Every structure is written in structure tokens, then in C-alpha cells.
Amino acid sequence: xxxxxxxxxxxxxxxxxxxxxxxxxEAALAASTAAFETLRRTSFEERAGWMHRAADILDAEAEQxxxxxxxxxxxxxxxxxxxxxxxxxxxxxYADHAATYLASEAPVRPDQVGASRIAVRYEPIGPxxxxxxxxxxxxxAMRFAAPALMAGNTGLLKHASNVPESALYLGELxxxxxxxxxxxxxxLVEGGQVLPLLDDRRIRAVTLTGSVxxxxxxxxxxxRNVKKSVLELGGADAxxxxxxxxxxxxxxxxxxxxxxxxxxxCIAGKRFIVHRDxxxxxxxxxTSAMAATVYGDPFADKTTxxxxxxxxxxxxxxxxxxxxxxxxxxxxxxxxxxxxPGWFYPATVLSGVTPDMRIAREECFGPVACLFPAENAHDAxxxxxxxxxxxxxxxxxxxxxxxxxxxxxxxxxGVFVNGFTSSFPQxxxxxxxxxxxxxxxxxxxxxxxxxIKTVWQA
Length: 458
Fold this sequence. Notes:
single chain, Aldehyde Dehydrogenase, Chain A, domain 1, Aldehyde Dehydrogenase, Chain A, domain 2, 19 strands, NADP, Aldehyde_DH_dom, Ald_DH_CS_CYS
């Protein structure tokens, strides 16, 4: 079956690529294994030079890359351009800090363990398979690629099937920067090829960003093969607004959380839990601001957000809204499928959402917000934690005691106070519960795929 670029703005097929054959997959595995034997023996300085050159190439070609992203998955050109430059910054971060993150260390004095010399070393493990999503086709993949290569591993990228041109670009970028041929390659394969790849002993680990179902299947296959896995499986993030919150700042961030990237972001707020004292004002201001957003052509200046990435994603979002509507939720704005070509969906706000509604339990990957009133801060914390997901959360308050309550009490991998949830190369990223395990980014991210070797000398 060919792998196609479906333009979500028009719904039309722009280009098709042939899926890789078994012979091509075998050649890629062999090349990755051979490149590892070369790359593992290079110095951090050599790898950093190649990574900086690859980052320079990406920055120089950022507009071209952004056009590809917008055409393939529909985000606005401005946000795609930001993604390209952010990815280059992430590459430079690991080029500059990998040697420090992975420096050998002696955690105790040698005499405390009866030795003359001890060391804990961080060494590469080999080819790592990355199964990546379409919502941030360059940045999401780069969060794996940059640290993996700087650690001395090689990478095989199985990207989402609807972003093949972004995937192919990444598959060539690092060799253009100077990395050994085969160090990072793209596999154009369908999802069904992932589990057989994990049975191949040459692949030493896997990282996946995707659905809970996909993550569970990959984790089971990795476990069966005794291979390390890192999973990021989405979220239903809480956005908590307490009485002392600055609504002038909170409302625009709340809107951006739901319409940025057309709502297709794991880490952005989806459940808006608002203290009763400010609930009515927040609902009115937030709903008005959501209704004022403009969806449309991602290349047009007036567009707030573009189409959904696929027809299936839009259908799933609308099914969640319809299920909530049928069970008594109020649609304050949006909630209707627009006529015309493309996979657009309007900014939508729901109130009166109850636990029996699917949208209260599942991740809604689109520009839809659910409002929930809270009696007090502890009730807001309880509601925030009543989710199978635990990726991140945003809390708006000026009181130190409330900041401490939520910073310690939220069952999430990240807490953002009075600001937009985001990812930074310098900070760990990941979740708990059904949002997955393991971490990307920062020092802990690069240490996910290394052999932590203890050296003890008498």
C-alpha cells in the first residue's frame, strides 16, 4: 500500500510514496548496525560538530520545512516555522551539553567500596527504533534523534504515515551534517511493521509517542524481547483557574491551549477546572475568545488555526462532542461540522460535562474545551487527578500555598504555574499513569538509552 500525503486543507492526495520492501528494511537495519560500530567510537566533539552543522542546515531550510509540515498535517505556517527553529535549538542544546550529561562519575570515594578506582560510565547501546506521531513531525522526532545520536546510538524512524516528506527529510538531515551514513534513517512502513521490527535483535530499544493502545502493544513486544521502552501516550491535561488568577493572562493562554496546533497537542490543557468564584466570568470571556478564532488556510495570515490532520481525527473529535451533547452537555460555541473541503473543525466549548460522557475520560485531540466548576482548591485538585492520564497541568493562582498544593499534589509529569504548558530541551518531559513512562529531553532524556556501566578496580 502506498504511503500518501493527504493535504488536510483540501482533502486531496498531493503525493504518494511506495512503502519500503522487506529488502529495503533489511538494508536499513544492516546499515544502522554498521553505523553504530563507527559512531560509538567517535568523540563528543566530533558528534557535536556534525549536530551543529545539521542544525544550521535545518535553520537555513526552515521555511521549506515549514511548508512541508503545513501541507502534510495542517498547522499554520507560523507555528510550523517556529517548530523548525525550535528543533534546531534542541539539536544545539544536545551538541553543547551531551558530554556533560554523559560524563563518567564517581558517586562515592573508592575506599568506601573497597576499591582503588571506581567509575560509572554512560555508554551507547545500539540501534534504537523511534515510532513518532504527526502532530509535531520535526520537533517530536528531534526530541529523540538529537540525544540518541549525541549519545552514540543510531536511530531508525518509523514516522506517522501521513507525514512521509517530513520523515524523509529527517532521514537525510544528519548525514548531510556529517554523521556516518546509516546513523539515522527513515523507514516508510505501516504501523503493522513495528512489532516485527522489535523482534529483530539488532534493535536494542524503542521509544513511542502515540495512543495508549499503540503504546501497550509496543511495550508488550519490547518486554517480550527484553528491550528498553519509553512511552509518551498523550494526556487530558487540567487547566486550573483559582480566584486570585490574572484572567487577562489566563484566558488567552487557555484559548491557545485549545486551538494551537488545531488542538492536537498532548500537553495542552483540555479540562478547564474553574473555581466557582470566577467561573461565570471565565466562561464568558473564554467562550467569547474561542468563538472569535478563525480556522482556515494554514498559509493565510488571518488564520488562527488550520484543519485537523486527518479525516479520522476530525471524525473522532466530533463523535466525542456528539456523545457529550446527547448526554446533556451544553455546547457554548462551535460543535458543528463545517461544509466544504478540508478537515476543519471550529473552536468548541462544552459545559455540563459529566463522568458518563466519553469526553470526560478520553483524550480529545482537537480544538474542544470542557469546563468544570470547582468548589475550592482541594476540589479542583481532586478533579484534576480524576483522570487516567497524567502528562502535565497548568495552574493559575497568585497564592504561594495554592502553588505548593498543586505542585506537590498533581499526579502529572509536569506542572506549569501561571503559564502555558510546553517542552524545553533543558527540562525533562513525560508523564505518569496512562500518559506513559520514561522521559525525553534534558539529562534524564539522553540517559534513557545508554548502558550505565559500573567499573570497580581493586
